[in-house]
Specification:
The chain is of the alpha/beta class and 460 residues long. It folds into three domains: 115 residues, Probable tRNA modification gtpase trme, domain 1 (Gyrase A, domain 2); 115 residues, Four Helix Bundle (Hemerythrin (Met), subunit A) (Up-down Bundle); 163 residues, P-loop containing nucleotide triphosphate hydrolases (Rossmann fold, 3-Layer(aba) Sandwich). The strands form two sheets. It has a seven-stranded mixed sheet with strand order 3-4-5-6-2-1-7. A six-stranded mixed sheet has the order 9-10-8-11-12-13, sandwiched between helices. Helix 3 runs antiparallel to helix 4, helix 6 packs antiparallel against helix 7 and helix 6 crosses helix 15. The chain binds guanosine-5'-triphosphate (GTP) and magnesium ion (MG). The site of magnesium ion (MG) has 6 residues, from helix 8.
Length: 460
């Protein structure tokens, strides 16, 4: 599709609200607005007004029918979101005025924008890079304050800055090496092996820290996965319902009630958590339950945190012990449920599996210690899952690219240490730099050339 087109869309959600916005971007934005907008008590200078708002009516030029009473904003290129002329029409927020206004806009020369096309234009015109474009989406989709804060930081270029500075360091190193390859007998200071090794180490350190930060940021965006597991009938579904404060999962005294996994989002201390209730784990023959147990195991693998539930009202069984042995202890909290009933559990037996501070006693039904459990989860998220928040999100795709870049750098570093030809070192380094370009969406060859020649004086 042609980016010369003028595009338009309703930029606010469908439904009824105070106002709704029709947004137009492109060369014809102003001329379209001029045809359908009639200002009240003000004159518009269509060839010079910019970043001004006007009150008036949208009127169908053909039959003079009044469509809506609106506020119209004119934003002239290039200092706009898309770097093109933008008009925003603030209509009343019902579907009808918005649709009719949009119809007029389309009739007079715009075409309907594809999803994300305004942001795509901002990217194509170089106003934002790919990372920032993605963060616009994250801002829209943020589920908690923290997620929003991170997305906003990203939009301001938090990650981009880090990635560019990483790239700069790689380009810098590559240009040193290429200089050494291409001009070995020239009279310039060549870096020692030690210098180059130091630079490699620094680059690797940055990549490692970026990948770590990315994981933490993603947790804010997508939620920490908290998986509730245990043998049948210990009260897993009851706990899910209590934490959600709604009867989401079916609870019965019959073991094996939950057959499939159930996922719901909750917010604890600003952390988005995805709570996952699972089918009770036991040896089963029936096909439905076998499938349920299989799903439980796959959820355990994905979990950031496991809540392993056992019941205080009966002694430890073989099934409990199997689970206690199987789960990854670092990410597990042990929850003893049903403390409202007479207790038959030997707590001493548990101590060989879990330190006391990772054990909590609750009653899911009587809601005893639920607040404490939440605090424990929040603390756990803080300490174990997120060590420091730094306002950066890296998507799975970007992390994969970074992983590949890391491989390239490691290989180049190894080649250097083995004193193999520098051409081989340069080759892998170059590969890594090009891959970084995939994250920010830019091409790099010219950068390298520029860097190399900037080290020489003219005429040499
Ligand atoms: N007394 C008491 N009973 C509870 C408590 N929590 C759950 N129960 C009861 O234990 C039984 C099983 O509860 P569920 O929540 O269905 O247990 P589950 O672990 O999801 O069971 P499955 O889905 O079969 O694996 C129900 O009768 C609940 O009412 C509790 O804290 N105290
Ligand atoms: Mg259940």
């Amino acid at each position: 599709m042609n980016s010369e087109d003028t595009i338009a869309a309703i930029s606010t959600p469908v439904g009824y609200s105070g106002i709704g916005i029709v947004r137009i971007s492109g060369k014809k934005s102003f001329s379209i607005a001029k045809k359908i907008f009639h200002p009240v008590k003000s004159k518009i200078n269509w060839s010079s007004s910019s970043f001004k708002m006007f009150y008036g009516w949208i009127i169908n030029p053909e039959n003079k029918q009044r469509i809506d009473e609106v506020l119209l904003s004119l934003m002239r290129a290039p200092r706009t979101y898309t770097r093109e002329d933008i008009v925003e029409i603030n209509c009343h927020g019902g579907p009808l005025p918005l649709r009719k206004t949009l119809e007029l806009v389309l009739r007079y020369g715009a075409r309907l924008a594809r999803p994300g096309e305004f942001t795509e234009r901002a990217f194509l015109k170089g106003r934002i890079d790919l990372l920032q474009a993605e963060s616009v989406l994250n801002i829209i989709q943020a589920k908690t304050d923290k997620a929003l804060e991170i997305a906003l930081n990203q939009l301001r270029g938090g990650l981009s800055r880090k990635i560019y500075s990483l790239k700069d360091k790689m380009v810098d190193l590559l240009s040193l090496i290429e200089t050494e390859i291409n001009f070995p007998e020239e009279d310039i200071d060549l870096p020692s092996i030690k210098d180059k090794e130091k630079k490699f180490e620094e680059i690797l350190r940055i990549i490692t820290s970026l990948r770590k930060m990315g994981k933490e940021g993603r947790i804010y965006q997508e939620g920490v996965k908290v998986v509730i597991v245990g043998k049948p009938n210990v009260g897993k579904s009851t706990l899910l319902n209590t934490l959600l404060q709604q009867e989401r999962a079916i609870v019965t005294p019959i073991p094996g009630t939950t057959r499939d996994t159930i996922e719901e989002m909750i917010n604890i201390n600003g952390f988005p958590l995805t709570l996952i209730d699972t089918a009770g784990l036991r040896k089963v023959k029936n096909k439905i339950e076998i499938e349920g147990v299989k799903r439980t195991y796959s959820k355990i693998k994905e979990a950031d945190i496991i809540l392993l539930i056992i019941e205080g009202s009966s002694p430890l069984t073989k099934e409990d012990i199997t689970l206690l042995q199987e789960v990854k202890r670092e990410k597990t909290l042990l929850v003893i449920n049903k403390i409202d009933l007479p207790q038959k559990l030997e707590k001493k037996e548990l101590e060989s599996f879990f330190p006391e501070k990772k054990i909590i006693e609750i009653s899911a039904i009587k809601e005893i210690n639920i607040e404490r459990l939440k605090q424990k989860i929040a603390k756990f998220v803080n300490e174990e899952v997120i060590s420091s928040s730094n306002g950066i999100v890296i998507s799975i795709k970007e992390e994969e690219i970074l992983k590949k870049v890391e491989k390239n750098i490691e290989r180049a570093f190894k080649t250097l240490k083995e004193r193999l030809p520098l051409e081989l070192v340069a080759f892998d380094l170059k590969e890594g730099i090009n891959k970084i370009g995939e994250i920010t969406g830019e091409v790099t060859t010219e950068d390298i050339l520029g860097q190399i020649f900037s080290q020489f004086c003219i005429g040499k």
